[in-house]
Structure formats: structure tokens, C-alpha cells
């Protein structure tokens, strides 16, 4: 069967760029007989495509990077102000990183739950405004900031119990009932984790580790107050996010989230669903996730996440993944699928290996999963993070399900004019970035280039190189791609010391924040001019 008519008209072959041109024949073989014949899936697929029928622009900023008095930015007034700033810039998309609760390293890609929100993002002022928390709040910054926040959130729960209106109490009950399929276990896991001195679940004593029914029942009774506290915090997080999302939609802003393919070993999800992951009987890792050696790393990347037991997930009709995606679509209008190629094949590394060199590729049922997701949801607004050397099989899967890909301009200036990241090779159905949270800032990247490569960048962009990163910003905005996203650090012209993450480095990541006085006068006017100039006004 040929591609459905609704998709044929997008001229897929004309826009196809495969990293290895020698694989073109293989790609055409794989895409010749794509078949999504179910009418509901066809309609859902078309609705997803329709998200990319107009040119738009946005900014990339994680909420933790917002200004404010706390150790982290939050979902309060500064987040609402940022939405208004986006509007003044002519932008219509706000992209964030994952919103889940983090470990002490603050990485949003190693969360304690795939459903829960990060309690560090809760606005304390919002709680004060509702009379649930004392208004005298000195800054949280300092060694004991997280401990102080826990004290304040506990005080807010007590204030809620005393002062909340009936509507708020009813909303809390409705939230607990509606989210019980993940919230009950997550709250117990967090309560136990605190009770066990923050040790990971696989180091708990055996009955708790193995979720012995009698032990679990006793823990729920013994830790009832702590469990209630976790549930309250999640209720507040989701209330604040709902208000922020409503404000975004009122101002015409699309919220763009991020879904990591893997989950943390020490997470509620793995503790509760051990059978869905490749663990031994003690809950320990035997194999872990990562990527093989490549141009960027001689030894590859050993991420250390547990791998999925895909046969069991498939046997359960992919329900775990359905619920995970359902949560993200409840938070965001558009979601990035991190490490998309891992849905076709993933790199399996022996757990005892210190590097990723000794791994091998293992097939994953990505096609079956995405069929199932299209059956379940009215639309599937997903973007594939298809970076790196992508095989024809991965490219065919992306196009089969009409997922836009990604183009990173910092990757464009190696390998000559056929490099798929160069703007003249871009496609309509992709998201173009100057860089991402894992890259250096564009100003920092450019300053670190060798003279010869700098000259190539200057010649290609028609620039002098003196006003970087603005030539790259212009290139991103003028690209044929329907969506252009710029990290806030780039529009502020900031150097390497302001990057969000250095992959492979432990510590000192995920901490960057901006202040409003860093915003140059008339920046919004200048950005809006460029957004209008290149036809991206939302």
C-alpha cells in the first residue's frame, strides 16, 4: 500500500536526507510499502502533521532557569512573565526540559518518576497568596535550601488543612482519585526513600525491595503522614502547571515538553514495575543503556539506565508506555522523544563495563509501539530527537509516523555541503535549533572553533563573525523548517560559562539561571522584527 494521500502531498521523498547517502536504496526499500491503513490512525496522523503547517518560533528555557528567590526557578509569577515575554518577541512556543522530580544531581533526564512533577518547581508565593503558607519567606538559597523547602511545603499542607476552601478540597480529592494509578505508589516510594535515609530502592531490605504485600501494607499505615505530604505536593504542582498552561494558551503559546526514552534505575517506576526492565532477581542491573563510540566520544556514552524488557511490555499491550505518554500529553501540546533511534535499536552495554565500547545493538519494537499509541490517542504531537548517525530503518520509522525531526546548526559545519544540518538541506517537517541544552552556547561554540572552521561558518552565513550568535539565529529563523527554537542563552549572546549541561560531567550541571536585567533593552522588539521578517509570527 502506498503512503496515504494526506501524507503523499507533503513530498516526503524530496525532503528526505539520510546521513549515509549509500543507504538511499535501503531507505526507499523500507518506505515503499508503508502501511497505516486504519482510518482512526490516519486521522490522528494527519492531526499531528497539521501542527507543522505554519511557520513558528520559540525559546528553549527550563523553568528551573527562571529568576526568583528560591534555589530553583518555579512555576509562579516569573514563569507567567516569561510567557508574556515570549509574546512580546513574536514567539509562540516555549520548550522546556522534562519536569519530573530529580535526584541530587538535578538532571531532568534521571527522574524519580515519569508521572510526578518536580516539587522544586512549586511556587511558594502561590501558596502564600492562597493563605496556606506564612507570607514571611526569606530566600531559600544556601546549603540547607532543600531542607528548608521541605519544611515550608509541610507547613503549606497544614495551612491547606486549616484554611482551604471547599472547592480546593474537592479538587484535591479529585486529583488523588484521578491520578491514583501512579500517585499511590509514587507517594509510598518517596516516603519509604526518606524513611530509608534516601538509599535507592534496590538497597532497601528485601521485603520492601520486593514489595512484599504485608510489608507494603504496614508501610502505608506507618508512613501515612509522609505519603499525604507527597500527594499534596503533587496536587499543588499540577494546579500551578494547569494555571501556567491556561495562561500560555490564552496568549497563544504552545508548550513543548521532553520525554526521555529511558528512566532512572532508582525510580518509582522501576521499583513498581520491575518485570518491565532487564534486572536480576535482586533488582540490580545486568545491562545498561548508552550509545556506542562515535565522532564525539572515543569510548561512547554509558548512561547507566536500565533497559526495557520489551517482550513483556508488548505482551501488556504497551500499557505502561500509553500511560506515560498520556501524562505528557496532559502537560504539553508538543513533546520531544529523546533518543528516538533507541525505539528501533538500542545499545546494550554489560553493567560491569565502565565505558560503552563493549555494547551491541538490540532491536526494539518501536513501530508496534507507535501504532499502538496512534490507536490510543486522538493525535500524537511528537518530535523525534533523531540526532547522530541515523540508519535508514530509523528514518523510515520516523517518516512512517509523521514525526518531525531535529536539525542543530552547531552540527552543520563539518563534512561539506551535503551535511543535513546545513540550512539548505533542511526539511519542512523538522525543528531547527542553534543548539540544545547539551550543547555549548553558540557564542561559546563559535569562539572555540579552529580558524579554518570559523571561516567556513562566516562564509556560509555571510557574516563577519563579529556579532555571533545573531547570524546563527537568523539562519535558524530563515530555515525552511516549520519550527525554529532558540536557547535563551543564545538570544542573550552568552558565553560557555552559561551553558546548561556538559554531557559526561558529574556535578555543576542543570544550574544555570537568568535574571531579567540580563535582557537587553529592545531585545523583544529586535527578535519580533526577525520573527516577522522570516514569517514566523504565531
CATH overall fold name = TIM Barrel
- Give the CA-CA distance, first to last residue: 36 Å
Mean pLDDT: 90
Number of extended strands: 12
**CATH architecture designation:** Alpha-Beta Barrel
CATH homologous superfamily label:
Glycosidases
CATH class: Alpha Beta
Cα Rg: 23 Å
Total of domains: 1
* Helical segment count: 22
The global form is globular
Unreliable spans: 1-22
Q: Specify the helix fraction band.
A: 40-55%
Which structural class fits the helix and strand makeup? alpha/beta
Query: How is the biggest beta sheet arranged?
Result: 8 strands, parallel
Spatial strand sequence of the major β-sheet: 9-6-3-2-1-12-11-10
Strand content: 5-15%
What can you tell me about this protein's structure?
This protein has one domain (5-533): TIM Barrel, CATH 3.20.20. It is built from 22 helices and twelve strands. It has helices at residues 5-8, 12-15, 24-31, 39-50, 77-88, 124-129, 145-163, 166-178, 180-195, 206-209, 213-222, 224-250, 268-272, 310-315, 319-331, 366-376, 392-400, 442-447, 451-461, 470-478, 488-491, 523-533, and strands spanning 56-60, 93-95, 254-259, 287-291, 301-302, 334-337, 345-350, 360-363, 382-384, 405-408, 430-433, 483-487. Helix 5 (77-88) links the parallel strand 1 (56-60) and strand 2. The longest helix has 27 residues, at 224-250. It is globular and about 70 Å long. Mean pLDDT is 90; it is low at 1-22.
